[in-house]
Amino acid sequence: MDPTITIVVQGIAFFAVAWMVMKFGWPHIIAAIEDRQKKIAEGLAAAEKGEKSLAEAKNSANDIIKEAHARAAKIVEQANRRSVEMAEEARGVASAEAERLIAGARQEAALESTRAREELRRDAANLAVFGASKLLGREIDAKAHADLLDKLALEIERG
Q1: For the segment 22-58, what is each residue's pLDDT rounded down to a tens digit?
Q2: CA distances from 84 to 76, 78, 89, 92 (A)
Q3: What pLDDT was estimated at residue 140?
Q4: Beta strand ranges found along the chain (DSSP E)
Q5: Is pLDDT above 70 for 149?
Q6: Contact at 8 Å (CB) between 137 and 148?
């Protein structure tokens, strides 16, 4: 066989196989490549979307943390303010109670002082009756001379 015929037959066979591959195989290969490119593009888009979502979630978490810190600070401030108010209120109540107790003690002291004066006046009147009876040499009836004794006690009390 002649080498020229072999080359021509091989050329025809090559072009026939190339044409069949281009006609029947190539569209499937191109479709597979395009499908693969599409999946890769979708994956990259999903990854980029995931990164954006992660960044948004971090920002949102930071905002929530800042808000929580602000709320906590506000609650602490309110608690401090309330404790100061409660302390002031307790001081006021204690002061009012102290004033009430002092007023009660003063009133009781005044009552006791009045009682002591009355007792002293009675004792002075009894001493005056006893002294007068010794001076007169006879016993004086305290009931009969009550007005006189009361006047005497008032004069003794005045000084």
Answers
A1: 899 889 999 999 999 999 999 999 999 999 999 999 9
A2: 12, 10, 8, 12
A3: 61
A4: none
A5: no
A6: no
> What pLDDT digit, counting tens, does each position of 61-71 carry?
999 999 999 99
The count of structural domains within the chain is 1
From CA 157, how far away is CA 121, in angstroms rounded?
7
Q: Residue for token digits 């990259």?
A: 44
What is the average pLDDT value for the chain, to the nearest integer? Answer: 86
**pTM to 2 decimals?**
0.43
| pLDDT 10s digits, 58-112 | 999 999 999 999 999 999 999 999 999 999 999 999 999 999 999 999 999 989 9
Buried b (16+ CB within 10 A) or exposed e, 14-36: eeeeeeeeeeeeeeeeeeeeeee
Domain encompassing residue 82: 3-157
Token look-up 């108010």 returns 85
Q: Is 149 exposed, middle or buried (0-12, 13-18, 19+ CB in 10 A)?
A: buried
Yes or no: say if 77 and 70 are a contact pair by the CB < 8 Å rule: no
Q: Which residues contact 152 (CB under 8 A, 6 or more apart)?
A: 125, 128
